[in-house]
Structure formats: C-alpha cells, structure tokens
C-alpha cells in the first residue's frame, strides 16, 4: 500500500453526566485525510481544505499525532506526506481536533503496516489533541478512533472501556454558526462541587452506562441529566434552554451540550423520532435568527477507517 484515504468521524463528548469521561462516535459527519509514501524522507502536510490550519508539523494537531506514532515505532525508510480535508467545523463541539488527531495517528500506522492497535494509538492522538485543548484527554479521540460509546475509566495508565451502542439509537446535532473555544468553556467551570451534586451526577453516569449495556432506552433517557456542567456552560450558548426544551418535547430521550459547545445534541430511539426531533430543534432555532447546521446520524460502530487504498 502506497496511498490511502480515510474517514475520521465526528464525536459527542460528555453526554451530559459523563463530563470528560464518556463519548460517542457519529456516522454521518467526519473529515477525510489522504496519506502517501514518498521517496524523500520526512513527514509533511501538503494540502489542507475546509479550514485555515498551520502546515508546520509541530503546530498542527494532525502533525503532532502523526509524529508521535513515528516516535513510538521508529522512522521508516521512506517519507510520508498527507492531506487534511476538514468537514467538521473547528470549535463546533463535535470533535474537530480529535478527528484530525485520530485520523493522523491511524493513517501513519496504516502506511507502516499496522504495528500498533487502535487502542495503542490513543496516546499519540491525545498528544495531538493537546495542541488544540491544552491538555491530553481522550473523551473525543477514543470514540472517534474506536467507534460506539467509550468510557475513560482512568489515565494512569489510560484505561478505555468500549460500550456497544443500542441498535436503534440515533443522534441529532444542531450547530449554531458561532465559535466557542474549549478554553472559554472551561473557564466558567467551578473547581469544586457539592456532595449532593456529585451523588446525583455519578448516579446518572452509572445509569447511562447501564442503559447502554442493557439497551434500556428509558433508563438511558432518565440518566442524560447534568447538574454540574450544563448549568454553568449553557449561558454561553444562545437560546440553549429553548432548544433543549424543543428536543425533549418532540420525544427525544435526552438533550444537552455537545462537548464544550456550542453544538447541542439529542439522542433518540429510531430514525423517525430523530427526524421529528431535528425538525423541532430547527424550528425552534429558526426563530432566533442565528444561522445553524443540523445533522442526523446513526451511531458509528467502527471509528476511523480506510476508504480507499492504492498499491
């Protein structure tokens, strides 16, 4: 294999109660990247579309993740150049930087003959993610890389639990055309929480995981509650309460802030319900005068994957 094209999917992190530890992979939205072997040694980014990003390897999320893989397995006797075609808007709250980082780590590994497993690539992807967020975290890169839902049980060492998605689950994501930086969204958070809030939150995390594992949609919906992060962050998203209310009244299982925002997600049982919820959320936001994109997506069960190869 001398060239490959891959798909790096978007993801939703936090899922309300699972701040920084739970994420899910989306099937309908994602970046594309092309990697090829060349005779001149070294690692180079040759083309970027869909976003204004640096071409320097040490300043680009994808470049840092790619180099981290080479540092782990060793430099090959050929050069590698790659292209980044962004389809996920930066600052949208659906894992744009994570898609770049995960895709780059996976693409380099593929050209080298897959010396590392997907789970082993997460550390490299996290190094790339840190360029965008300021710290190494896996709540987006893990679902993007592995697919389905993922739970980050811990970081010392990294311990990722894969959770299969219920078969009828769909996500709706509405992205207001505003940019909200993760650093700004983190700046509004409090360093401590009350014991009462903690008990409520970890009960919901347990309920969410149990609901996913048993395909109990009602339990899943009851558990999509956030008493810690959402009350602080929702003020950064215009008309958040109206948008969430529209989703819930349409029949969604639950709704909340996707990642750091500004995107708002809803989880639904069945495609018809997802379409109904998407319509309700769109109608609610049309009244605000703020431009937006909306997506309906099944849960992606595969994660980053190769689309085409050339020998």
What does this structure look like?
This protein is an alpha+beta fold and 311 residues long. It has 10 helices and 11 strands. The strands form 2 sheets. Strands 1, 2, 3, 4, 5, 6 and 11 form a 7-stranded mixed sheet that branches. The protein has a 4-stranded antiparallel sheet with strand order 8-9-7-10, with helices on both faces. A hairpin with a 6-residue loop joins strand 8 and strand 9. Helix 1 runs parallel beside helix 2, helix 6 runs antiparallel to helix 7 and helix 9 packs antiparallel against helix 10. The mean pLDDT is 96.
Q: State the helicity in percent bands.
A: 25-40%
Number of strands: 11
| Distance separating the two termini | 4 Å
Average pLDDT over all residues: 96
Shape: globular
Instruction: Pick out the low-confidence regions.
Output: none
Element-by-element helix/strand order = EEEHEHHHEEEHHHHHEEHEE
Summarize the biggest pleated sheet.
Answer: 7 strands, mixed
| Radius of gyration of CA atoms, rounded to a whole number | 19 Å
What portion of residues belong to β-strands?
25-35%
Helix and strand content put the structural class at alpha+beta
Quickly count the helices: 10
């Amino acid at each position: 294999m001398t060239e490959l094209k891959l798909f790096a999917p978007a993801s939703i992190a936090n899922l309300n109660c699972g701040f920084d530890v739970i994420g899910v992979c989306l099937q309908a939205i994602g970046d594309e990247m092309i990697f090829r072997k060349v005779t001149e040694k070294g690692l180079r980014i040759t083309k970027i579309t869909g976003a204004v990003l640096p071409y320097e390897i040490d300043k680009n999320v994808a470049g840092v993740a790619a180099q981290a893989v080479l540092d782990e397995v060793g430099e090959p006797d050929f050069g590698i150049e790659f292209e980044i075609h962004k389809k996920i808007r930066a600052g949208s709250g659906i894992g744009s930087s994570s898609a770049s980082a995960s895709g780059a780590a996976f693409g380099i590994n593929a050209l080298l003959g897959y010396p590392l497993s997907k789970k082993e690539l997460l550390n490299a992807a996290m190094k790339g993610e840190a360029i965008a967020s300021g710290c190494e975290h896996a709540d987006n890169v893990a679902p993007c890389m592995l697919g389905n839902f993922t739970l980050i049980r811990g970081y010392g060492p990294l311990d990722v639990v894969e959770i299969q998605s219920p078969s009828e689950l769909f996500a709706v994501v509405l992205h207001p055309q505003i940019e909200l930086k993760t650093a700004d969204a983190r700046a509004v958070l409090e360093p401590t929480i009350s014991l009462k809030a903690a008990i409520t939150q970890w009960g919901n995390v347990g309920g969410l995981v149990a609901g996913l594992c048993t395909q109990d949609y009602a339990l899943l919906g009851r558990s999509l509650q956030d008493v810690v992060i959402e009350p602080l962050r929702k003020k950064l998203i215009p008309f958040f309460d109206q948008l969430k209310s529209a989703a819930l009244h349409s029949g969604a299982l639950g709704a909340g802030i996707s990642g750091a925002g500004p995107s708002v997600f809803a989880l639904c049982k069945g495609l018809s319900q997802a379409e109904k919820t998407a319509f309700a959320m769109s109608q609610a936001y049309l009244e605000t005068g703020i431009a937006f994109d909306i997506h309906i997506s099944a849960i992606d069960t595969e994660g980053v994957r190769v689309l085409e190869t050339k020998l």
